[in-house]
């Protein structure tokens, strides 16, 4: 483990960014969060507001028309949007997830061709790894890519793909040599408009309902050979390297959801009166609030440390413990978010259980952070392997 401190200093620019994103989220995103949850429709208003403010894909470098924000700035954007609406926070989060493979392994041509439209707000980018029978065991995927002259032909189905049908571009992992196991998996860019691409029906979910989750179905999808990301057979390595960076964004989403629930609960217990005084005056309630805030702050510090390490790795640093720390941040922050949102519902009592108040939505939204980008059980496997290898 490295011990060179400070890992990252929260600059004045980061503070100003937080204020900017929070103001935008409060004004443009929060007012429609309940409706987004109720209708299960993509939050176009939020997307338009984020694009107008250049906050939809802040991680893309300036060389590709992006704003070139660092990993900590990206975390802050996702965190503050998630505080208002978890579904909307998947706009910047999944744009990063889909594009990191290209940033890590793509050719200069791929970077110019696909990063710039995302940076300009003309397209979104999703990530297609999981399959019906290959979730935690992603290397067991069945999707195939067969070389045919100057093209690749892809067949298979990807499941649980966030923003599927909305995104224009998809990073798709497919088997190119079944005899080589994980080393026979390659990564490709597939476009929504490619002939043979279709989408399954939207999943009916517990939370993050405004972010569509659908199957991506590929039936003899023929793409140019230059749409391979990196060398043939390096796709699974790229996928794992990507998750080292993007698990941090799920931790950020969990932070934001938890912060929104804590903020609302604090406001409620200061106003709600029972037995002649505010329930916030009772020590049992005070201890609950203190524990919620303590867990949230611990999760935030771990997440920001992971973001610092992610940034250093992207800049060429070794950061040998990034895999451990990013898994720890995702696991700890999502567990904390589930606990904090559940306690927020408890503090509101019966009001917490109804949709007139936002904490029940936040509790439902928090659950997915313990599941996607690797369940928290898988995160513990990842961490233990890093410790024991």
């Amino acid at each position: 483990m490295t011990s060179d401190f400070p890992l990252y200093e929260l600059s004045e620019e980061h503070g100003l960014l937080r204020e900017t994103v929070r103001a935008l989220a409060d004004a443009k995103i929060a007012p429609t969060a309940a409706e987004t949850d109720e209708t299960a429709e993509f939050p176009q208003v939020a997307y338009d507001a984020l694009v107008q403010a250049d906050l939809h894909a802040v991680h893309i470098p300036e060389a590709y028309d992006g704003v070139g924000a660092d990993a900590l700035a990206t975390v802050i954007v996702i965190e503050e949007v998630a505080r208002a609406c978890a579904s909307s926070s998947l706009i910047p989060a999944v744009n990063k997830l889909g594009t990191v493979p290209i940033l890590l392994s793509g050719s200069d041509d791929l970077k110019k061709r696909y990063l710039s439209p995302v940076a300009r707000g003309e397209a979104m980018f999703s990530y297609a790894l999981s399959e019906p029978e290959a979730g935690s065991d992603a290397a067991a995927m069945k999707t195939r890519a067969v070389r045919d002259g100057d093209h690749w032909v892809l067949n298979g189905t990807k499941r649980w793909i966030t923003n599927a049908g909305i995104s224009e571009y998809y990073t798709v992992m497919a088997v190119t040599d079944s005899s080589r196991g994980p080393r026979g998996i390659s990564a490709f860019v597939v476009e929504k408009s490619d002939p043979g691409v279709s989408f399954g029906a939207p999943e009916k979910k517990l939370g993050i309902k405004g972010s569509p989750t659908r199957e991506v179905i590929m039936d003899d999808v023929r793409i140019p050979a230059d749409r391979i990301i990196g060398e043939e057979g390096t796709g699974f390595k790229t996928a794992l390297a990507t998750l080292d960076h993007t698990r941090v964004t799920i931790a950020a989403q969990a932070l934001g959801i938890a912060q929104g629930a804590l903020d609302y609960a604090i406001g409620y217990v200061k106003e709600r009166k029972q037995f002649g005084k505010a329930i916030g005056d009772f020590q049992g309630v005070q201890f609950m609030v203190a524990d919620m805030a303590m867990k949230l702050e611990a999760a935030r510090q771990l997440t920001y440390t992971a973001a610092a390490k992610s940034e250093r790795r992207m800049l060429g640093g070794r950061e040998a413990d990034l895999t451990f720390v990013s898994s720890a941040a995702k696991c700890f922050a999502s567990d904390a978010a589930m606990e904090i949102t559940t306690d927020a519902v408890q503090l509101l009592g019966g009001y917490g259980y109804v949709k007139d108040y936002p904490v029940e939505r936040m509790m439902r939204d928090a659950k997915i952070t313990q599941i996607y980008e690797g369940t928290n059980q898988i995160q513990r496997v990842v961490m233990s392997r890093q410790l024991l290898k």
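The two ends are 13 Å apart (CA to CA). The beta strands are 125-128, 144-148, 151-162, 169-175, 185-191, 197-199, 213-224, 228-229, 273-274, 277-278.
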